Fold each of these.
Amino acid sequence: MQRLALVKNTDGKTAEVNLLISTACINCPTNCIEHNKSFTVRNKKNFPITVGDYVKIEMPKAMEISAGIFSLFFPIISATGAFLFLKRKTELCSIALTETKTFALTLATLVLAEAIVFLFSRMKFQLSKSKYIITQIL
């Protein structure tokens, strides 16, 4: 996701920026626009940025991809693991779990995993130079 920012201070390798409001701000829990918070980003491509420049910043692709993979596969793997665990537990302990109970417990695990992903996406993370890089000067 690309975001627009205004450079407040720079030393060449990093820049202190303020984000400009965008549609992504609607669902963001950090409220950095509202509180006028600034944060540091890396200038990996050594752009000749100066104070007052508008820049595009983004999270590295590897972080975006890993977040997407986590959001998609964590609930699926959790539910599959719960199902296989329940089947194995039933065989080893001679516990009589009906298909309905197995389904309900697997579904509960899926819902719990989805809730974890949802809560994780709403956590207030510190915006830091390790997350965002400057990709373009406007």
Note: The CA atoms of residues 5 and 20 lie 5 Å apart.
Amino acid sequence: MTSNITLTQSGTIVNIGTTTISETSVNPLIIISIPSTDLIKITKVVNLLKIIRRWEIDGVLSNDIGSDTATTKRNNLRTMFRTRTKSAPITLTYDGVNYNVGMEKLDIKEIPTDQGDVGDNPRSYEVKMTLIEIDEV
């Protein structure tokens, strides 16, 4: 498990111990059929020149990474997911590069353990999320 993913929003920082990171880039193409007077169908492919970059991240929120507790990190991620305004963008820092992203999907699963749990503060949470790069904030 590494900690090379950081999400930041309005001064709130969440460090994620990643287990897998999948990055997908898509260049949507549109196929247009143009009516013709002949029996020949004319088809054009239009490149929208709009690359969509998506990250699927699996990781762990734990008390061992960063200064916040796992529960605080979980609550901060929930807040980031609910806050979808241009005035409060989410910044993904991945391998030292910053990206403005929107959180499309967030799945948090509690990992109960016998050791280290204090009240409502479990040792860790499994996290799965999908982030999409946004051009303008």
Note: Residues 70-82 form the longest helix (13 residues).
Amino acid sequence: MRFEFQISFLDRNSNDSPETLAFVGNSDVNAAITLSGNTLNAGIKIGDTVHSLTAENVINKGEWNKLRIILENGKAQLILNDNVIDTGTTPFSLSDISNYMSYGSTACRIGADGNGENGFVGSVDFVRMYIGETVAP
């Protein structure tokens, strides 16, 4: 099964302070996309296990960026502006993630972390989540 998350964003942060672009979950189980300067990180955490993809010097500040994160058959891809910027394997299946996220309280935030902090300084055009086959926006 394939899961895809897409977001289009314009980062206006003039310094390197950390920003959370998107967050789903709670303190024990979550998926988050963070920016720090021009570095992009997309991570999934279940308990003490964290899997993340990171790419440095990839964010075009002051310009629109299209991000796609694809999880399929144990593999993960981070695609920014139609370029694959990082790939890897993930120990988590989609059923693992959905099973764990159904326990306890779950926050779903665009532009902030689970506590409503580390706000994103910029604009978001669209957010899409798919399970199944998709095409680039």
Note: The chain has one helix and ten strands.
Amino acid sequence: MALTYLTGNDGNVTFGDHFKALFNTWSGTVSRVSTDITGFADAGKRRRLGVIDFTGSAGGHMSYGVADTDPGLTTMEALNFSDGAAATFTVAAGCTIVADVVISSVAISSDKNGDATVAFNFEMSGGVVPNATWAES
């Protein structure tokens, strides 16, 4: 396989059967808690890393008029999604991140110029590190 540079055109995100939108953007941050354990005798900082976290948001355009297009607001699925569910974040074919997430907030917007968007803010749940798959050959 030749070296290929990624663009956002091939991206996608799915939250299982929940939270529908014509997604056109997502971003995620993998982080670890850093705890300062510096002692009185230390001349410089001393830190230990804690657990991994994965947080971010995914957004796009809302749709309606046919079955299974509700973005999850009419039944407030966010309340029923409290234990988390698998979400798949795709950069391109063969390049994905799968993580159990909870939806911590949903933001909707309607603009006179035509945009009717929705954004889902997520946080990792389930105690399992996200699984990244990356096409290398």
Note: The chain is about 5% helix and 50% strand.
